[in-house]
Specification:
This protein has 137 residues and is mainly alpha-helical. It is 73% helix and 0% strand. It is globular and about 40 Å long.
């Protein structure tokens, strides 16, 4: 299943096509992942092109497993601001005490979010503030 997901994420698509159809298909694929698929994804995600990483970060959610959470956390170590914002946006849906603790135990994540706030656009600022509110609640 990983190879099919890799092919989908590697495909050249328009932005509309990706957000209308591609991300839905990718999310459905992720829901069917086996432990070995998750292992392969975890091992390869950081070596993929930035656009591929942005797509996977957008598709991960808190319905799959702890694997998707760990992948998002690993993707936060990026210099790409858009990827970082996508990961933070996706992490807002993680409401378990365990996931909040893992984020709070990584102060560099919170520091980076706070560093982005002053210069972020209004929609991004609202998303970042919402993330901080949810993490601290």
């Amino acid at each position: 299943m990983y190879k099919e997901l890799d092919h989908l994420l590697s495909a050249d698509t328009t932005i509309d096509s990706w957000y209308d159809d591609g991300c839905v298909i990718a999310s459905e694929m992720l829901a069917e992942f086996s432990p070995s698929d998750w292992g392969e994804l975890s091992n390869k995600v950081l070596n993929k092109p930035i656009e591929w990483q942005r797509k996977i970060a957008y598709c991960l959610d808190n319905k799959c497993s702890v694997h998707d959470f760990n992948i998002l956390i690993s993707l936060l170590n990026t210099n790409d601001e858009e990827l970082f914002e996508i990961c933070i946006d996706t992490l807002r849906s993680y409401s378990s005490l365990e996931s909040k603790k893992m984020i709070l135990d990584n102060p560099q994540i919170l520091q980076r979010v706070n560093d982005l706030l002053p210069t972020a656009s209004i929609p991004v600022r609202k998303m970042l503030e919402d993330f901080l509110t949810k993490i601290h609640s």
